[in-house]
Specification:
alpha/beta; Glutamine Phosphoribosylpyrophosphate, subunit 1, domain 1; Rossmann fold; 8-stranded antiparallel beta sheet; 6-stranded antiparallel beta sheet; 19 helices; globular; binds 2-deoxy-2-amino glucitol-6-phosphate
């Protein structure tokens, strides 16, 4: 986690740094700081709390500087205090470092550096790097890039580091290992950042940086080398979205904007996938028909909301393509001895493409011989780069910490994969595939219709603001939707919330129901296996024990026992989560507002979780 930005060029550094940090705040927001390069010394300011605290303390007494580095933090080692905020400096106050990730051997480094006389002023792992670099820079006669190359050889863990020295403040040195860093190439100005969002306003020319590559930016250019100092060829690409896409566009919160962008995001992810002769076109999978036919198993690895999309993949792919699908929490996966081979397809789902748990699970799967396909929303991020193939979702930048449009597009992406596999394996006929694809194309308008009628739901939500606990029930694909509804409510409203499979209720969770407990029940679409009737029985069971039941059901479906009913448009049963999740997102959003919480940046969280 943590957001990092560096600027050197022809203009004042402060605006790109602060604006860059604002766009990276989704990565962490418990403290922020900057170091500005002025001749012979560094101007450093850092503050606990959100970026606004740093801005207030900066006032208008800033030195003029055309280079600098900035950091927005999500605390790992050391609490969110002024002292622990980045940048961290050496004992001369001339060398400053910012860091995203974890230095695993910092204790040992710290002890060695203290023995040499270095004084530490924070509880962070990062500060040891500032002292280490300071010593090495002296050893290498003031050559900061050489010092960084040497330092990195002794560091263990995951890190992106940027360093600057007062004697040559226009030179910023960066490195990445298992954490993101991207270079922006402007017109006589250069940027380093955790994410292109930080510099998109200035340039769309971006350069990928590989593992253990050292990058040096100056006002006149950049250089990338490996740890031995060998020049590396830059891998440049154009960023395809613009600054406007990352603004709130008149909505009170990014989350609300992103909820309302869902029809477009889903439509964009689906566009142009069916050929004139009814074939699902997914060249991105890079798998021959023969390879698809010989697949024995699919394993989905993901975290949080992306994991819920993976659960939906299991229902859809098993039903359509008749391939066994396992869904694994990425952070658990690599600490087992999973049974995988070359006939296993591993699908890694990640909005950010930087989630460390998912990345590590992916590497584990690759090492065991599996083929890895990423479903990702962020171009050129680490997870797609390390996968054998990638299917990009087209949700556009998702800024709010709570995932909404990324989830819906992940679900749609797994439907596309399921249909493609089913078609190639001849488990569905071309006309069945075409019918289902056309049903997918109808989803954006149906989401739109739900969004046009959310006002009563928002009012209803506020009446539950004082509840201490909310339960969510679903069956079949409604179960992952229930889990997603509960996760949204936890992260935004800070309420106890749990999602259950309706059938599990009587095996324990029903004991949680007391007079007035809100229960949100999703009635499965259609009548397959009488799941709709079984859910209506579950509703009666919780109602009989005092629950207030909010039911989500498709238009026309029979509902009994509900305190409130939210209708969603009719769609094939497997597609229902794309619709049923929308009111759940609105419920969580409105609850957060009613309880006075920060919607876009909920406490303790970060958008991109780049530590294990
Ligand atoms: C969702 O609202 C969460 N903030 C979180 O669970 C998220 O989905 C998870 O951390 C995975 O992130 P990724 O999709 O970027 O890998």
């Amino acid at each position: 986690m943590c957001g990092i930005v560096g600027y050197t060029g022809k203009n004042s550094a402060i605006t790109p740094l602060i604006e860059g940090l604002r766009r990276l705040e989704y990565r962490g927001y418990d403290s922020a700081g900057i170091a500005l390069g002025t001749s012979g010394k560094l101007f450093i300011e850092k503050r606990a709390g959100k970026l606004g605290n740093l801005e207030s303390s900066l006032g208008d007494q800033l030195p003029s500087a055309t280079s600098g580095i900035g950091h927005t933090r999500w605390a790992t080692h050391g609490g969110p205090t002024d002292n622990n905020a980045h940048p961290h400096v050496d004992n001369e106050g001339k060398l400053a470092v910012i860091h995203n990730g974890i230095i695993e051997n910092y204790n040992q480094l710290k002890a060695e550096l203290q023995a040499k006389g270095h004084k530490f002023h924070s509880d962070t792992d990062t500060e040891s790097v500032a002292h280490l670099l300071s010593d090495l820079r002296k050893e290498f006669n003031g050559d900061l890039p050489a010092a960084m190359r040497e330092a990195v050889k002794t560091l263990r863990g995951s890190f992106t580091l940027l360093a600057v020295h007062a004697d040559n403040p226009g030179v910023i040195v960066g490195v990445r290992r298992n954490s993101p860093l991207v270079l922006g190439v402007g017109d006589s100005e250069y940027f380093l950042a955790s994410d292109v969002a930080a510099f998109i306003e200035y340039t769309k020319r971006a350069v990928e940086l590989g593992q253990d590559e050292i990058v040096v930016i100056t006002p006149t250019g950049f250089e990338i080398t490996d740890l031995d100092g060998n020049a590396q060829t830059p891998r440049e690409y154009q960023v395809t979205w613009d600054a406007e896409a990352a603004q709130k566009g008149g909505f009170s919160h990014f989350m609300l904007k992103e909820i309302f962008e869902q029809p477009k995001a889903v439509a964009d992810t689906l566009i142009g996938r069916l050929t004139d002769n009814n074939q699902i076109e997914l060249d991105e999978l890079k798998m021959s028909d023969e390879e698809i036919r010989s697949l024995k198993k699919i394993v989905v690895i993901a975290c949080g909301t992306a994991y819920h999309a993976g659960m939906i993949a299991k229902y859809a792919i098993e039903k359509w393509a008749q391939i066994s699908v396992e869904v694994e929490i990425a952070s658990e996966y690599r600490y087992r001895d999973p049974i995988i081979d070359a006939q296993t397809l591993v699908i890694a789902i990640s909005q950010s493409g930087e989630t460390m748990d998912t990345l590590m699970a992916l590497r584990h799967a690759k090492a065991a011989g599996a083929r890895v396909l990423a479903i990702c929303n962020t171009n050129s991020s680490t997870i797609p780069r390390e996968s054998d193939a990638v299917l990009y979702t087209h949700a556009g930048p998702e800024i709010a910490v709570a995932s909404t449009k990324a989830f819906l597009t992940q679900v749609v992406a797994v439907y596309l994969i399921g249909l493609h596999l089913a078609q190639v394996r001849k488990e569905l006929t071309d006309s069945e595939v075409a019918d289902l694809y056309n049903e997918l194309l109808a989803l954006p308008a149906k989401i739109e219709a739900i969004l046009e009628t959310v006002e009563p739901l928002r009012a209803l939500t506020r009446t539950f603001a004082k509840s201490s606990s909310v339960l969510f029930l679903g069956r079949n694909v409604g179960f992952p939707a229930a889990l997603e509804g509960a996760l949204k409510l936890k992260e935004l409203a800070y309420m106890h919330a749990e999602g259950f499979a309706g059938g599990e209720l009587k095996h324990g969770p029903i004991a949680l129901i007391e007079e007035g407990t809100p229960v949100i029940a999703i009635v499965p679409a259609g009548h397959e296996h009488s799941l709709d009737e079984k859910m209506l029985s579950n509703i009666q069971e919780v109602k009989a024990r005092g629950a207030q039941v909010i039911v989500i059901a498709e238009e026309g479906a029979e509902v009994t026992g509900a305190t409130h009913v939210i209708r969603i448009p009719v769609a094939p049963a497997l597609f229902q989560p794309v619709l049923a999740t929308v009111p759940l997102q609105v419920f969580a959003y409105e609850m957060a507002i009613a309880r006075g919480n920060d919607v876009d940046q909920p406490r303790n969280l970060a958008k991109s979780v780049t530590v294990e």
